[in-house]
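Fill in residues.
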């Protein structure tokens, strides 16, 4: 990179650390930013809604619209097409696929340090030991997962295809069979199991057993990073502050907004999900404790990719990892002081 361009880019990215809410709010105009999620509004999106309703995005000079996803909504093609500005990606597998397919987008923040993907089981069946899960006679796994992290479970932990049964996002088959295990989102399905089945399931986060991907990543177009780095930085910083406030502060307004957008959700479910995010260390754990929510590490991305190569999902060297993520927008301790001020530990 040309020395002058490197200086300008560094200065632009560093600039938000000295901006204040008062300075940004005094601007007569705000830049529009459309952010699309990957599902209906839920607690796992809470930090973004917090930044929206408490004015943090506005203070950072942004007019943000959150566009929810859903079962019949695929927001992913909208980002490279230029119809949205930022996109929530599920995990690094999506990012690897983008690079493999030549799609010019990349991750600029990882709001979840742990992927909430989990295996859940009935209590008192010996499944409190993760190693025993591979012996379950029935494993209810959705088709897309069978071709991704299930392959990793087979190579890394000895799971077998003979146990596979399709999971159609209906808890009935799992609740009816005490020896069955099934996939689940660790901050959602355990709540529904308790509500419908009347018991606390055994929950094993794949992240705690080597599935080290980041999750709930913020993606944007490569040309946006190149041409408007300060715009990207403001969206990332404001989102981080939103998450710090949502987890540790007053989230009532954010919850109200999400309940309005997703009436299938309840306040009780939102609060239960937040409690699970906190106890499981989904958002604020590991490097994020000192570097700030959203932290990313190039070495961890490479290690996860190497694991996926061993699982047979990719070939060595097939993905240019330098194009997967840009870590310059995170690891800057944004939100750490706010978390402590709000009483978060």
């Amino acid at each position: 990179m040309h020395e002058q361009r490197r200086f300008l880019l560094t200065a632009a990215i560093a600039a938000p650390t000295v901006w204040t809410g008062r300075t940004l709010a005094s601007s007569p105009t705000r830049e529009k930013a459309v952010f699309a999620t990957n599902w209906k509004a839920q607690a796992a999106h809470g930090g973004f809604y917090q930044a929206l309703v408490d004015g943090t995005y506005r203070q950072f000079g942004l007019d943000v619209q959150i566009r929810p996803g859903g079962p019949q909504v695929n927001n992913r093609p909208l980002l490279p097409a230029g119809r949205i500005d930022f996109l929530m990606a599920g995990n690094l597998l999506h990012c690897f696929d983008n690079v493999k397919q030549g799609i010019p987008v990349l991750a600029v923040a990882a709001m979840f340090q742990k992927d909430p993907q989990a295996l859940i089981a009935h209590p008192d069946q010996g499944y409190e030991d993760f190693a025993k899960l591979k012996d379950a006679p029935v494993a209810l796994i959705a088709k897309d997962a069978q071709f991704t992290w299930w392959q990793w479970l087979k190579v890394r932990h000895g799971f077998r295809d003979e146990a596979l049964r399709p999971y159609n996002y209906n808890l009935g088959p799992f609740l009816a069979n005490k020896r069955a295990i099934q996939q689940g989102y660790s901050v959602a399905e355990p709540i529904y199991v308790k509500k419908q089945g009347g018991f606390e399931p055994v929950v094993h986060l794949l992240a705690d057993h080597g599935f080290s991907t980041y999750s709930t990543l913020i993606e944007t177009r490569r040309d946006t990073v190149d041409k408007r780095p300060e715009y990207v930085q403001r969206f990332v910083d404001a989102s981080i502050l939103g998450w710090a406030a949502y987890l540790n502060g007053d989230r009532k307004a954010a919850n109200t907004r999400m309940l309005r957008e997703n009436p299938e959700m309840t306040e009780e479910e939102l609060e239960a999900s937040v409690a699970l995010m906190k106890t499981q260390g989904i958002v604020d754990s590991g490097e994020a404790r000192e570097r700030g929510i959203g932290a990313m590490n190039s070495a961890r991305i490479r290690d996860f990719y190497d694991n996926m190569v061993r699982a047979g999902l990719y070939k060595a060297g097939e993905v240019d990892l330098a194009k997967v993520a840009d870590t310059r927008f995170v690891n800057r301790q944004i939100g750490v002081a706010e978390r402590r001020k709000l009483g978060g530990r």
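Strands lie at 31-36, 62-67, 86-91, 105-112, 117-121, 138-141, 164-166, 180-185, 202-205, 215-221.
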